[in-house]
Amino acid sequence: MIALTHAFGLSGEPFLQDIPVEKLFPLPGLKGFLERFDYAMDIGAVSVITGEVGSGKSTSLRAAAARLHPAQYTVIPVIATSGSVLEFLRQISLELGAPPASNSISRLMKTIRDLLLNVTGKKQRPIIIIDEAHLMRLELFAQLHALMQLPYDNKTLVPLILSGQNLLIDRLLYHTSRPFSSRIVGRTLLQGLKLDDMKQYLLHCFPSEHSGHFGNFSKRQYQLQIA
């Protein structure tokens, strides 16, 4: 990257991971994802975003979560692992500011549900966003279905957003996952940038005074950028 900044006379790195949300490149599938995200939020359901590594899933989650005002929403971010149900519930409990005091799944479920009800009692809306969800064990999806529902299935306690690689869809189609999958109201499949998108991406990342460097790029050079 140092060579890149010197080559183009830039004052800073053009491809930082922590780019401010307002400066993110508008991915081709972002608008549709934000609409599905909002719809899931409104009705308390589940929305799923999938794509291969580098397709922009985490970037899309950042863009969506950044629009939620902290006075109105409590965002509970979770990075999934291949760990047990107990470990997953402990993650959520910690994110809600309550170090888990039990190793019982049923007690942890009650604790988390009480914490979520406490959030809604403060006139805020909780939302759980799970990244790398393709790593989750199959039995976790049944627990998620139980976690997001109030008694007698008459009202949803918390909407969920799941993000992961395309394997996530296979896990959601498994028969034990079907009760949870029935809550999915939107699915977004992100594709990697196409050749036609790459020039716009480079123009977005570099200041306008340096954009002329890309006008003479060959098709092969753009393909190397995509790779």
Strand order of the largest sheet: 2-3-4-1-5
Question: Helix tally?
Answer: 10
* Share of helix, binned: 40-55%
Oligomeric grouping of the chains: single chain
Output the structural class: alpha/beta
CATH topology, by name, is Rossmann fold
**Would you state the CATH class?**
Alpha Beta
Beginning-to-end CA distance, first to last residue: 17 Å
CATH architecture verdict: 3-Layer(aba) Sandwich
N-to-C series of helices and strands: HHEHEHHEHEHHEHH
What's the shape? globular
Mean pLDDT: 81
Number of domains: 1
Description:
- This protein is α/β, with parallel strands linked by helices and 227 residues long.
- It has a single domain, classed as Rossmann fold (3-Layer(aba) Sandwich), CATH 3.40.50.300.
- It is 44% helix and 14% strand.
Topology:
Elements: H1 2-8, H2 30-43, E1 46-51, H3 57-66, E2 73-79, H4 85-95, H5 105-121, E3 125-131, H6 138-147, E4 160-164, H7 167-173, H8 178-181, E5 184-190, H9 195-205, H10 219-226
Parallel strand pairs: 1-4, 1-5, 2-3, 3-4
